[in-house]
Design goal:
By secondary structure, this protein is of the alpha/beta class. Helix content is 25%, strand content 21%. The protein has five helices and seven strands, in the order βββαβαβααββα. A seven-stranded mixed β-sheet has the order 3-1-2-4-5-6-7. The longest helix is centred in the middle third of the chain and has 13 residues.
Length: 183
């Protein structure tokens, strides 16, 4: 099985807690103005890489922490689920970014979206909004995005924000969050 990647890095300190490997998927339907990773937007860009190669590279580096970013990771949910499942078996902490809301992902009909969610520890959801850009918030680009405790959210059947990762002041805004439709 192949996955289309924009890039793949180790030793990131900005894409989640601790030093992490980051898998940047290629292809994104959101096309957020001001996106920090514009080259990952086209669906025909990047490189096709075997899922097994990605797993091997992550296991070899052995940071025990991985973030899926993009592009839009949930567009390649089956491939990322395969990677995530193997890494979880090895005790990895897994985060993912998405331009979709948690609620939209929960409604999605692709079974691999739910399977991928089931492997995650943290989900950072919501599109990036330039007018809400804030460099003081943790692990996000704009204040409408949430840091979600995925296991607690799945157990509750609703979004539960992480109590571990809280901004020093109440900077989150919700006026631009919508229950968007997943394509």
């Amino acid at each position: 099985m192949k996955i289309r990647l924009a890039s793949f890095i180790h030793d990131s300190i900005v894409d989640g807690q601790g030093i992490r490997s980051v898998v940047f998927t290629q292809g994104c339907p959101h096309n957020c103005p001001g996106c920090h990773n514009q080259k990952s937007i086209p669906f025909d860009g990047g490189d096709l890489v075997s899922v097994e190669e990605v797993i091997e590279a992550i296991l070899e580096k052995d940071l025990k922490k991985v973030t899926f970013s993009g592009g839009e990771p949930f567009v390649q949910a089956e491939q990322l689920y395969t990677i995530a499942k193997r890494l979880k078996e090895e005790g990895y902490n897994l985060w993912s970014y998405t331009g979709f809301t948690f609620e939209a992902l929960m409604r999605h009909r692709d079974p691999f979206v739910a399977k991928l969610l089931s492997q995650l520890d943290i989900l950072i959801d919501g599109r990036f909004y330039m007018r809400k850009k804030n460099l003081e918030i943790l692990y996000r680009g704009s204040t409408n995005q949430r840091i979600i405790d995925v296991p607690a959210s799945l157990a509750a059947g609703k979004c539960i924000k992480s109590s571990e990762f809280v901004d020093p002041q109440n900077l989150e805004e919700t006026e631009d969050r919508t229950d968007d439709i997943f394509i």
